[in-house]
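Friendly challenge for the regulars: who can give me the structure tokens for this chain first? No prize, just bragging rights.
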Amino acid sequence: MEKWQLALDMIDETRSWGVDVPLVLADAGYGDTVAFRSGLNQRGLRHVVGMSTTPTAHPAAASPVTPPYSGIGRRPVARYPDPARSVKTLAIEAGRGSAKPVSWREGSRPGKARTGLKRMYSRFVALRIRPAGREIRDATEGVELTECWLLAEWPAKEAEPVQFWLSDLPAGTPLITLVRLAKLRWRIEHDYREMKQALGLAHFEGRTFNGWHHHVTLAPRAACQ
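First reply, four minutes later:
Bragging rights claimed.
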């Protein structure tokens, strides 16, 4: 079974326990998968997911156009007049000047913030786009593709954007909210690392000698407590 399907199954199981899932965050390994995003939409779950540079989209202002009928054959159907472009291209076309500075949290290094720590800071471009592609078109009712957010991190010292996210949060969502949610992935990685190291989940390595050794060592130890 694909990892994205396992993720959807885990979300379904979590919700079956009565746990609310207000928002789904994921990296590009999941965000690039149209079926995963469609699964979230079908469940009515908002998301902020990472993207690679290659997925394509149209600008939000783009509209389908029906070519004139020549009188021969089938009548033409409405389609977007210009080809879809990569999300990276759309962000670059928006221009460096469209990138806005955002500080989203305090880091762990010494800095000039009131707490004495350094603030995490970068520049971001936020665009409304319409993701494209055959899978998306086949799953879309009608001819107009769904509008959503493209968020791109474009540091001042970089010649082009370095990281991308896609989100179906409402059109009026502030930039700072988009950035904070996108960057919340660090907390997930931090908590996962703590679960493996501090709580010892990494000790259970499956059907290997080390995994068996850890299990038979820890199990009697736990029984003696």
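The chain has a mean pLDDT of 85. The helical segments are 3-16, 28-31, 34-42, 87-94, 134-139, 175-182, 185-197, 209-223. Your move, everyone else.
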